[in-house]
Design a protein that fits this description.
This protein has 254 residues and is α/β, with parallel strands linked by helices. The chain has a single domain (1-254), classed as Vaccinia Virus protein VP39 (Rossmann fold, 3-Layer(aba) Sandwich), CATH 3.40.50.150. It has eight helices and seven strands, in the order ααβαβαββαβαααββ. The chain starts with 33 loop residues before the first helix and ends with a strand.
Length: 254
């Protein structure tokens, strides 16, 4: 995640290493609470393949599509890592709007970004994306590993609201965990993914407990299902810019 050399810092000021599922825990759905927010940067760095490169690619594409004087929305902004990268690549009159359903994440985002944006306007909102979203004067909307947490029954409606809110030629960048197109590949891809987590220092207990905690809250689609949803919602163009086994990045233009 932090290819720029930045490291996650907890409220105590120490580097936050993800140990959320290190010891035995009672079964419960995964939540983005204060415990997770304190170590989230380390968590995604170790859990999401090529996360730093994906962030670099998102920033690169954003520089081509963002229009001065418009808003950039990050839906599920978490700790603000994407805004942090975009700040160096976009005009200063571009306004950042971050939306997340976790106040703990927003607090961490504010703490991290406040000293680094040099006066750029930043608005952070706590909101549930399942209830919809209002997009205004936007040339770019981001959902980086967020749509997978939105209830499937409302995803299409949410994506349509993004299309409707984007300015003409506005861009939508979607990064998601996905299912393999066939069960054979899906089994292999999941195994390869858990191998990556093991290489990054997670134990069998950590992998198992997090998988169980996410089971009811993270519902992935297939890559082609996501692409079809974007096109049916009204985007004129859509392409895949990143793919690693069961992770993908899609870019669409209104």
């Amino acid at each position: 995640m932090h290819s720029d050399g930045l490291r996650p810092v907890s409220r105590s000021g120490k580097v936050g290493s993800d140990q959320v599922f290190e010891g035995p825990r009672e079964a419960a759905d995964f939540t983005f609470n204060a415990e997770v927010a304190a170590v989230f940067d380390n968590m995604v760095d170790r859990s999401v393949p090529f996360y730093g490169e994906m962030q670099r690619m998102v920033t690169e594409m954003a520089a081509d599509f963002v229009v001065p004087g418009t808003n950039v929305y990050d839906l599920g902004c978490s700790t603000g890592t994407t805004f942090e990268a975009l700040h160096l690549a976009l005009p200063h009159d571009v306004r950042f709007v971050g939306i997340d359903n976790s106040q703990d994440m927003l607090n961490r985002c504010q703490e991290k970004l406040a000293p680094r944006l040099n006066g750029r306007e930043l608005e952070l909102r706590m909101a549930d994306l399942n209830a919809g979203v209002t997009i205004e004067n936007s040339s770019l909307v981001l959902m980086v590993l967020t749509l997978q947490f939105v209830r499937p029954l409302v995803r299409e409606k949410l994506v349509r609201s993004i299309v409707n809110g984007l300015n003409p030629n506005g861009c939508f960048i979607l990064v998601e965990k996905v299912l393999g197109e066939d069960s054979l590949f899906n089994r292999h891809f999941i195994r390869y993914y858990y191998d990556l987590k093991r290489r990054n220092g997670y134990s069998e207990m950590e992998i198992s407990q997090k998988r169980e905690a996410l089971e009811n809250v993270l519902v992935p689609y297939k890559l082609l299902e996501n692409r079809e949803m974007l096109l049916e919602a009204g985007f004129r163009y859509c392409d895949v810019f990143f793919k690693w086994y069961n992770f993908c990045g899609l870019v669409a233009v209104k």
